[in-house]
Amino acid sequence: VELHFEVFHDYLEMHPFFRHYAKKNPAGMRNICHLAVSRMNASEGDVIFSTGEVSEDQMMYFCVSGCLCYSIGGKENKFLEEEDWLNEAVLWTEWQQIGALKAVEDCVMICIHVKPFLKVVDKYKTKHFYPAAYARRFISELNMQERDCISEIFDDFIDIDTVAEEVFKPKKEEGARKTFRRMSSNLSKFLNQGKFGGDSKAKGDVPRTTV
C-alpha cells in the first residue's frame, strides 16, 4: 500500500479533489493509490479512447510524460503534457466519450480505474462523505454548461479549484445547526410523548447520474 501511495499520490494530488481528499481521508487516499490506480505506457499514434466509446474499464488520465492530442468535432485540437489531466467525469457519472485521445509521442500516464475507485471511496466513508458531495457539485456544474462547450478537459470550463474548496471547507457551523435542530426535535418529542425519539440515517453512494 505504502509503495503505491509513494509512487502515485503526487500525480493525483495535482487535482484539487485528490489534494483535499488526501488530507481529510489519508486511509482512503492510500487505498485508492493501491487498488484503483495503474501506470499506462502509450506509443506514438496509440488511440487511448475514441468518440462514442463506453469502455468496460473507464479511467481518468493524468499525463506524466510525453504529449497527448485531444480532439472533438468542430473544435481546435488540444495538446496535453506533464501535469495535465482529463476524463474526470467517469468517476462521478455515467459517461460516453464525446472526444478522442491519441498519443502524439511516447507517453506515460497514471490512470484511475472507475470500478475499484468507487469501491474504495464507499468502503472508506467518513462522516462527511466528500466524494458524494463533490460528485453532486461536479454534475451540477456540468449540467449548467451548454453542450457545445463541454469536452473531457473539464477544468477548461469548470472552476475545479473552487468546487473542491467549497466541498471540503470546514462544516462545524453546519454541524452545529444540525445538532441544534436534532436536539430541538428530540425535546419536542420528549415533551409530547414523554421520551426521546431515535434518528435513522440513510447511507448514500456516489451518485452516478447520466448527464
Task: Walk me through the structure.
This protein has helices spanning 2-12, 16-24, 26-35, 114-123, 130-143, 160-168, 172-193, and strands at 37-42, 47-49, 59-65, 68-71, 78-80, 85-86, 100-103, 107-113. With 211 residues, it is of the alpha+beta class. The chain has a four-stranded antiparallel sheet with strand order 1-8-3-6. Strand 4 (68-71) and strand 5 form a beta hairpin. Helix 2 packs across helix 3 (26-35) and helix 2 packs parallel to helix 6 (160-168). It is globular.
Q: What's the quick description here?
A:
By secondary structure, the chain is an alpha+beta fold. The protein has helices at residues 2-12, 16-24, 26-35, 114-123, 130-143, 160-168, 172-193; strands at 37-42, 47-49, 59-65, 68-71, 78-80, 85-86, 100-103, 107-113.
